[in-house]
Amino acid sequence: MKRGSAFLRPLSALLLALLVFQACNALNPACGSARPAPIIGSLSASTVMLSQVQQPQGFVLVVYGSQFVSSSVGVINGTALSTVVTSSTQLQVTLTTAVISAPGTASVTVNTPSGNSGDLGCTSGGTSSALVLTIT
Asked: Is residue 10 part of a domain?
């Protein structure tokens, strides 16, 4: 039995190292708190009139996608906005003249801050690709 247990010790150490230092996935239990990177697919409107944004209540833009979590934030032209995450596939931001002040285009992304994955080799959070919103 000594020969077998001497063989198992290095194998056990290797298996433990693989579990702890691999990228975040189902095999790495240490990545349980890692947040997924958001993915956006579409907007409730691809074109908005400036007059809609200028209304006292602003314009509510719905962003559709996946992997949204409660800490996900809608970002317009690099400015993080107050965001209401209604589900893992939908969130809302209100466009006001503080962010959109003239006709043109705006870049819309979603950012999810990283979780507490530490230095375990887990990826967490991130910024989605951008969609373009046209303001006329």
From this structure: no
74-129 tens-digit pLDDT: 999 999 999 999 999 999 999 999 999 999 999 999 999 886 544 455 667 889 99
Q: Which domain holds residue 115?
A: 32-135
Listed residue (38, 43, 37) closest to 132, CA to CA: 43
Residue 26 lies inside a defined structural domain of this protein:
no
Is 1 a member of any domain?
A: no
Smallest CA-to-CA distance from 80 within 91, 89, 65, 90 is with 91
Do residues 61 and 81 make contact, with C-beta atoms less than 8 angstroms apart? Answer: no
Angle at CA 106, nearest 5°, toward 69 and 98?
Answer: 85
